[in-house]
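Note to self: the last two entries modelled the partners one at a time, which told us nothing about the interface. This time every component goes in together.
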Amino acid sequence: DQQVKQNSPSLSVQEGRISILNCDYTNSMFDYFLWYKKYPAEGPTFLISISSIKDKNEDGRFTVFLNKSAKHLSLHIVPSQPGDSAVYFCAASRSEYGNKLVFGAGTILRVKS
Amino acid sequence: KAGVTQTPRYLIKTRGQQVTLSCSPISGHRSVSWYQQTPGQGLQFLFEYFSETQRNKGNFPGRFSGRQFSNSRSEMNVSTLELGDSALYLCASSLEADDNEQFFGPGTRLTVL
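The predicted structure of the combined assembly is written out below.
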């Protein structure tokens, strides 16, 4: 049972344009959501997170939007840069389960220059 | 500040053998979690340790075990290796038990022949 889904295996975007990565979840008990970026042969790197009490969180070029009623979150990268090319993972957690993260399958982002 | 370190980085074992992987968290971090990444199943939570106690456990057989030492360093052990255990094993650390922001190491690539 996939509780966190990233339905787009890959996304290709032109440099300077907006990248939008999507994530859906099924478990309404999740109360914290995170995005990680992963390069080959490296571990995931934390990008940005959002608590379920918010609907938006912004950090520089990265903004995460949360729609609790739709159980959907998205990561916006503006403007996209070639160095953003990586695999992006959405993850979710529940407070009572401590640091246990449930990950989506990932989306490969390619930013073309 | 040094990041999460994992040793060894690469490992080749044969079926039936056992293996021990090591993780040193970021200095001051007291929570350590382990994840398995495979092409078919993605990133899956194995277990989490805090103050030398296992707080959470994922859906893996008893062949997978771990422990944490008083200096927060952690080891995980897999006994009676199977071909399907071939994966990237990632360790993540965080300051506290309920600190959602986790920092990942580069992983140990285990190949079972």
